Amino acid sequence: MTCKELERVLPELEGVRSFELEQHLRTCSECAALVSDLNAISAQSRLLQTVEEEPSARLWASIESTLRQEGLIHEARPQLVSVAPRAPRWRFPWLMPAMATFLVVCGLVLYQRGGLEPAPASQPVAKVSPADQASAMVPEEEEVLKLVGARVPALRATYESDLKAVDAYIVDAERSARTNPNDEIAQQYLMNAYEQKAMVYELAMDRSQP
Amino acid sequence: MRPEKANLTDARRSQSDRLSEAEAIERAKQGDAGAFEALYNLHKRRVYSLCLRMTANTAAAEDLTQEAFLQLFRKIGTFRGESAFSTWLHRMAVNVVLMQLRKKGLNVVPLEETMEGEEESAKKEPGADDIRLAGSIDRLQLQQAITELPPGYRMIFLLHDVQGYEHNEIAEMVGCSIGNSKSQLHKARMKLRELLKTSRAEKATRP
User: Fold this and answer.
1) Which residue of A19, A163, B61, B84 lies most exposed, with the fewest beta carbons within 10 A?
2) Which of A13, A63, A158, A190 would best serve as a mutation to test chain B binding (most B beta carbons within 10 A)?
3) Which CA distances in Å does A46 have to A24, B143, B160, B162?
4) For the domain that residue A87 is a member of, what is the CATH number?
């Protein structure tokens, strides 16, 4: 092999050396130095990969903002109310534990069954926002709000807002669990949603006590 | 007193950090913000490092990184898994960088053309040919030399020797043949060798 032949095959070598190449390198110091230098450059360059730079923190904020403006990111999930559970002193002792137990049991049953049944593919899914679905109060909620309003009128609107927010959370979590029946995170999310509603009821009832 | 609002997505967010890439991709297709962020955190350093080494400018590199990720997220619904997700992303990053260089009027020679006769050889210092590099390449000098490579060479070199992509992956990303990728890589290494020897010879001749 000559020096020119070596230069011609070098791009194709990829670390594989033929007998002729090895022979030539043993006898030609210039070519040996060339191959050695090129290998050293490649090896040192590979180490640069470990020196990966980090972009500034504002970059993600900028990307996320653009994605939201373009509607590619869903609306943020509603802020949920987290309250410290307190010992209930309600006027209707049967109402609170019954309601909370009912909600948690519902969540447990669904969780153990592996979530909600997925919506049949053939049926069109009505696009109703969680807020719309949650806006209509169920009778139990009306009862709770009536009790709160009777005792602490100033707080009725607050609890009504909290109930609507947690209902929207439940609707969203139910949809997520229905879409991903095998997703444990979605199931846990749904359980959390039911527990949140139970806690809202608990607090509301607590506020309504004398 | 109004109960405190809690960020109930904290548990979910920490769980999203542990999402596999495949899960994050599927969730991102549904518009999940946490999934988008997970994918971004997974790949941001590699993409940003590529852009930074191509531009040698942090502001420009961040702009290009942002553009690459925005293109990715806009098109994520079309990703079918025919190639690795990272390859798909880096292809977009490479395109974004090349388009930016062309906009600036930089002579990004189409990779199918050879560079012979079109580039100036680095001014050789006396004694440069006698310099041996093996075993003594300074990282900072190498990084500087990389910035002096023509953009076409630099791209192939960064993707192969720094980021570890194979020639078939580079060819797919950049839109050239495998043979051309190998040829350009070899020329990049030869050019770097020349630049490093010249730099070392310059240092040797300084008082």
Assistant:
1) A19
2) A63
3) 27, 12, 9, 5
4) 1.20.120
Burial class (CB in 10 A: 0-12, 13-18, 19+), B16: buried
Domain that holds residue A33: 3-48
**Do A68 and A32 belong together in one domain?**
no
Chain A's closest residue to B195, CA to CA, is A41
d(CA A198, CA A85): 10
Measure the N-to-C terminal CA separation of chain A; round to a whole number of Å: 101
Tens digit of each residue's pLDDT, chain B (207 residues)? 333 334 444 544 444 445 688 888 999 999 998 999 999 999 999 899 989 988 889 999 999 999 999 999 999 988 888 778 888 888 888 889 888 877 776 555 444 444 444 444 444 455 555 566 666 788 888 989 999 999 889 999 999 999 888 999 888 878 889 999 999 999 999 999 999 988 887 777 766
Q: What is the pTM of this model?
A: 0.55
Residue A53 lies in a domain: no
For residue B131, which residues of chain A lie inside 8 Å, CB to CB?
Answer: none
Gap between the Cα atoms of B120 and B123, Å rounded: 8
Nearest to A12 among B33, B52, B182 (CB): B182
Any domain includes A127: yes
Chain A to chain B, count of Cβ pairs less than 8 Å apart? 139
Does the distance separating the beta carbons of A42 and B189 come in below 8 Å? Answer: yes
Q: Do A81 and B161 touch (CB under 8 A)?
A: no
Give chain B's domains with CATH numbers: 19-103 (1.10.1740.10), 128-205 (1.10.10.10)
Interface TM-score (ipTM) > 0.85? no
The minimal CB distance from B40 to the residues A54, A63, A79 is found for A63
